Amino acid sequence: MTTLGNSANIFWHECPVGQTERQKLLNQKGCVVWITGLSGSGKSTLACTLGRELHSKGKLSYVLDGDNLRHGLNKNLGFSPEDRAENIRRVGEVAKLFADAGLICVASLISPYRKDRDSCRALLPNANFIEVFMNMPLSLCEGRDPKGLYKLARAGKIKGFTGIDDPYEPPLNCEIEITQKSGVCPAPCEMAGQVVSYLEDRGFLHA
Ligand SMILES: Nc1ncnc2c1ncn2[C@@H]1O[C@H](COP(=O)(O)OS(=O)(=O)O)[C@@H](OP(=O)(O)O)[C@H]1O
Ligand SMILES: Nc1ncnc2c1ncn2[C@@H]1O[C@H](COP(=O)(O)OP(=O)(O)O)[C@@H](O)[C@H]1O
Question: Boundaries of each APS kinase domain copy (predicted)?
Fold first, then answer.
């Protein structure tokens, strides 16, 4: 299947230094850790804690955070289903480039629609797309409400808010699920530890 969009007369150019050489240099394997979940479920917290944990192990990672990317690359997008799909598509493509560069790319977005997440997965060899589901109840996320957005959504001042009047489709086939244990959310370092163990067990932390 062609990966070409609307452009004609363009050709792929191979470079002599490829992913394998970069991975050897870094002593790690490039991959995408895709964190999905409701607003307030702890995506950014996990992404940052994981980034710090990997850094302390001498591993190069980069966090693509939905909120942050909407200040630049995705500043022209809103929250309609079409805009969310385009948001996820762009981040999926950027994440693929980071993985090709040999980095552990940590993407942290609500990414509420299964189809959009699966399209990102399809951009990479399946093992290199690690979907992490922040499976936290809406009541917990809404109780946290660090930005006051749930309150605004409940008051009808934000329309189409995920979990309130816009759907969140949980993954059917995620690699890692972060859940409460006996009604308590694991500490950020525990959540990050779960992901680091997965990466270690699958050989991503060595070339
Ligand atoms: N309508 C609506 N629905 C959901 N979220 C909203 C909305 N409007 C603004 N926000 C804020 O935008 C952040 C989510 O951006 P994302 O790029 O991750 O969203 S998406 O993946 O395109 O659905 C999200 O950040 P997080 O709370 O970190 O998830 C919200 O702060
Ligand atoms: N494991 C955790 N334990 C306790 N509080 C947490 C945990 N993870 C996140 N939080 C808190 O919950 C709020 C939302 O977390 P955040 O990472 O911003 O979520 P998201 O990126 O999914 O919107 C923040 O105030 C954060 O400090």
Answer: 29-178
ipTM for the complex? 0.99
Answer yes or no: is the C-beta of 36 below 6 A from any ligand 2 atom. Answer: no
* C-beta of 41 in contact with ligand 2 (< 6 A): yes
> Whole-model pTM above 0.90?
yes
Q: So which residues are the catalytic ones?
A: 111
pLDDT in tens, 29-62: 999 999 999 999 999 999 999 999 999 999 999 9
End-to-end CA distance of the chain: 30
- C-alpha 149 – ligand 1 centre gap (Å): 9
Show Cβ contacts of residue 34 under 8 Å, excluding neighbours closer than 6 positions. Answer: 95, 107, 109, 111, 117, 120, 121, 129, 130, 131, 132
Nearest CA to ligand 1 atom 19: 110
User: Measured between alpha carbons, how far is 133 from 66 in angstroms, rounded to an integer?
Assistant: 15
